[in-house]
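User: Good morning. I'm curious how magnesium ion would be positioned relative to this chain. Could you predict the structure with it bound?
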Amino acid sequence: MTIRSAEVLVSSPGRNFVTLRITTDDGVVGLGDATVNGRELAVAAYLTEHVLPLLIGRDEAMIEDAWQFLYRSAYWRRGPITMAAIAAVDVALWDIKAKVAGLPLYQLLGGASRTGCLAYGHASGTDLDALCVSIQNHLDQGFKAIRIQTGVPGLGQIYGVAGDQRPGQRYDYEPAKRLPKPAEELWDTRAYLRHVPGVFAAVREKFGPELVLLHDGHHRMTPNQAGSLGKSLEPYDLFWLEDCTPGENQEGMRRVRSQTTTPLAIGEVFNTVYDYQTLITEQLIDYVRSAVTHTGGITALRKLMDFAAIYQIKSGFHGPTDISPVGQAAQLHLGLAIHNFGIQEYMKHSEETLQVFRTSYTFENGLLHPGNNPGLGVDYDDDLAAGFEYTPAYLPTARLLDGTVHDW
Ligand code: GCO
Ligand code: MG
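Assistant: Good morning! Here's the predicted structure, ligand included:
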């Protein structure tokens, strides 16, 4: 068989997604996720203008060759746009290969290594009471692992904390936050560092020692501040502290690592194994945060995880709602199959998203499972998608109290 057609589908059911659909001359269809939050149309153009014309007529079974061709022969390597485009092609070709074999994709990756993938949900609250309600709500849904994010006195709305505390409300809920320009939020790292350890103490006290707790620092600390936070959180036994400092300075993580034994996770904005080279070989992290969607697909992320396995580093793939159900399904198949799976982030998509992307994955007793449909197990409904037009939407900007733009 060969590739007959390839289409880029841009839609906005609940939030913006870029999806690639590849069809073979026998009519087998494969889907890939190419969504880069806030920069969606750049990947759509990269695919449409520079990749789709090269796919037509290729042998769809030659996945490794397609990957190497797209990565090496473009001359320009790496970067989120390139690697998301390559990921979309790679995942769509794996979807086709598994459908042709009549098997769920995880079977082609070596079969299941576990009954399901431990998932963590996102609890948050502007204050401690609201946070505890949100944690209880997640426990009631069956979560065994929960990320907790808290408001900080004096700072107002903070990214990662739902402003509306009613059950089911979330911090990222598009289209409510769609503005022509990024919203601005205030940030003060010292106020945050004073506040967070007390919140963890109270949550441990209320919910006991067994609950798996995680926290995301959204790149806002210096290595020294991150080391100090990690140290002060040690009594509360975190599963991980995520993105405590911007990861492009890999050497900065040496400073963090030398100061704390709190497990560290990093990499949701990384694109290739090279972004992890020092972090992995020097064992400066415990979990790889990459998503299949932003790291060149299953082909590349599987190799990255094999490299990480040598150093006892596990997976914690990025799974917020801007990873489409196609991207999430792909990483559930990979997570089920690899030996060094750690945990999977799981923010349930909105109803609109799940109407357009019909999925076979399940969440039961705290575990996600990709399902047993042939391929990825995701179908895309064009008719419904047509009703949800793309609207630009941006992540917020964080500014310090004096107006300086800050990392987030
Ligand atoms: C996470 C993330 C998200 C990202 C978002 C950006 O850990 O899930 O930090 O909240 O900020 O996916 O696109
Ligand atoms: Mg994060």
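Residues 37, 216, 218, 268, 318, 320, 322, 345, 395 surround D-gluconic acid (ligand 1) (CB under 6 Å). The radius of gyration is 21 Å.
Let me know if you'd like a different ligand tried.
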